[in-house]
Amino acid sequence: MRHPLLLASVLALSLAACSTTSPDVVQRGDAQRLSSVQDATIISSRPVTVEGSQSGVGAATGAVIGGVAGSSVGGRRESVAVGVLGAVVGAVAGNAAERFGTRETAVELIVQLKNGERRAIVQAQGEENFKPGDRVVLVSSGGTTRVSRTPN
Predict the structure, then answer these.
(1) Where is the Glycine zipper 2TM domain (predicted)?
(2) If DSSP states are collapsed to H, E and C, what string results for 82-111?
């Protein structure tokens, strides 16, 4: 293995690609489940970044790859020391790769409900772009809420 950090980064990014919080993707557990819907109007919209996760998968993967790669360097004594150092460096690099690889571009929406109450919702940037004055619905199910345009 000549490029253990690259391999750890690719693996962490691949695992991160399996997860999404896009408002255009409905989780399997939310399918065929009754959701509550509230009418609202967009007051403001601004782009934000949702920080990536640190589940430990990236760090563990990086540690294994770094340890294996490091232990193949040098003689018997050196391979143990370099293996341990490689595992530490790999864990740090794998953790960073996971964190940056799972960041998402999102939008913070401030909405006003018909009763005058205001709510703030952060959701991943989907296909829809919202601007002040847009009529929307808040769809809530299982503790999560997503915003989408009011159907015609």
Answers:
(1) 58-97
(2) HHHHHHHHHHHHHHHHHHHHCCEEEEEEEE
